[in-house]
Design goal:
The chain has 45 residues and is an all-alpha fold. It has one domain. Helices cover 91% and strands 0% of the residues. The chain is elongated and about 55 Å long. Pfam families: DUF4244. This is DUF4244 domain-containing protein. It comes from Actinomadura verrucosospora.
Length: 45
């Protein structure tokens, strides 16, 4: 029984990682992160 639970947990973790990867690599997030970095650099210098 515990082997099946590990398998389900592994599949769930892989699905969650795939979802996070797609979110982080989306154009909207990329633009948002660029804006945050630009503002931080402008404030620093």
């Amino acid at each position: 029984m515990s082997t099946a639970e590990y398998a389900v947990g592994t599949i769930a973790a892989a699905a969650f990682a795939t979802l996070l990867y797609k979110i982080v690599n989306s154009p909207e997030v990329h633009t948002l992160l660029q804006g945050i970095i630009k503002k931080a650099l402008q404030m620093a210098g």
